[in-house]
Write a structure and sequence with these properties.
423 residues; 7-stranded parallel beta sheet; 43% helix
Amino acid sequence: MENNKLDVIIFGATGFSGKYVVKEAAHYVKENNFTFGVAGRRKEALESVLKEYAPDLSIPIIIADVKDEQSIKKMVEKAKVLINCCGPFAFCGEPVIKACIDTKTHYVDISGETMFIEEMQLKYNEAAKKAGVYIISACGFDSIPSDLGIIFTQQKFDGEVNSIEEYFSIPDHVKISKPILNFTTLESLMAVLGNIDKLRENRRKLFSKKLPELKPKLNTKRWLPHKSPFTNNYSVLFTGPDYSIVHRTQRFLYQEYNQRPAQIAIYLSIKTKFLTKIIGAILLLINLVLIKFSFGRSLILKHPKLFTNGLVSHKEPSEESINKIEICITFLTRGWTEKLSEPSDVHSDPPNKEMITKVTCTNVYYITAISVLLSALTICKESDKMPQGGGVLTAGAAFSKTSLINKLNNHGLKFEVVSSIEK
């Protein structure tokens, strides 16, 4: 039965991100030996996607709807790994994960919804381990560049890492054409923001065991804007999905491999004109009020162009505007040249080593597509290098010992060491 399964099925293949995954799968399969299928609610729409992106390939079509439990089960049992592109995941994700565990099918998705991701770990980690399957969310732009960027940094540091300060930026020369984000991305964000109180409750359960007291403490500058040493712009603390993912990875590495967890702060640094800053600040204040109430979130979703200053609209972003976006993630890492025997041991001297690493890319939707595809194929081909027993994991926890970073380095996501200085 296992030999008759497709290596990968792409669910939600007719959506904005799903089409990108189909496009990259059709391109990648011509040079690599694997099989894939596409799945969704409407056969005609799936045929249209394949006609556009895989006209010369014979790709199986599977009809499945998250509202139909049996159709979801029939879909996932045909795959070794299910790629879920069907969002918002708060509404569409859990039935697929449950079916994957029931049929012992591995699962990856492109979700950036912190609430959904952490809730799935709480509810299904033990069941996934018992079934021996990997359930891995956030395998797209959220949060592969950040999570694996930190793994890359720790692997290259050659010593003991104390802290990593991560800066997201768009280079000064980039001119943004709006919109640049898909509407579903905004829907997913609203789903997260509508459940902040429950998110805090879940984290108390999820992270009940304390990590060791690490010294010296990383100064996160709290919420105050500060001048970034790498972007020449003011940066603010960013607590998006990457923040949650990278800390879960560090916790896993400590608990499973007795590795000292890095203290991590993530900052957002964007170059804007003075007037745009004022407009953005006003919109942010309005949104912070509105998102506290369901009617406010509905209002934002009804008029996304107005409340996001044009960054999101009901109109899909063009290929041209997406390709213009360049992302640079810079990591400033401090630590010691020598490791102590236990991660909780305290160094008598201040950090004596500093390293700068960088992850760069263009077109976040392409990066999402190739990242989730290569994540799925890594499960197929390198499960022996992944944590034994399965479970609900982050990408960093699941793929740290595999070749995924090297593969991504050859497909548009550049990982590099910029400098390393010993004091």
